[in-house]
Amino acid sequence: MSDINIKITDREGVTHDIVAPTDMSMNLMEIIRSYELAEEGTIGVCGGMAMCASCQVYVINDPGLVEMGAEEDAMLAEAFHVESNSRLGCQLHIVPEMEGLEVEIAPYP
């Protein structure tokens, strides 16, 4: 089992040190949900299909994330509260290269 350490700041401004598994095919949205860092019904509304932007995060420290795909880019083009460092948590699959990732959960529309 391989775990990574990430920091997630919730919508209340509280930063959480999280241990996330890299061997369970999880994405960042699922990690946020499993640690209950956002109110139920306000994260992953579309189920992780890059269709709602409810899992939008601001990347504070990028240890080497994969490039944004076309679906993610298109969804963020229509989303609220988008910043230059916005990503969709559902599109960020937990891998060892994410060690040290720091994100802040964007406000819910």
- Sheet-strand content, in percent, reads 15-25%
Taking strands numbered 1, 2, ... along the chain, how are they ordered across the largest sheet?
2-1-5-3-4
How many runs of DSSP E, i.e. beta strands? 5
The share of residues in helices is: 10-25%
Distance between the termini: 36 Å
**Helical segment tally?**
2
Compute the CA-based radius of gyration.
12 Å
Structural class: alpha+beta
List keywords for this structure.
single chain; 109 residues; alpha+beta; five-stranded mixed sheet; 5 strands; globular; metal-binding; iron
What would your notes on this structure say?
With 109 residues, the protein is of the alpha+beta class. The protein has two helices and five strands; from the N terminus they run E-E-H-E-H-E-E. The chain has helices at 28-34, 70-78; strands spanning 3-9, 15-21, 56-61, 86-88, 102-105. It has a five-stranded mixed beta sheet. It is globular.
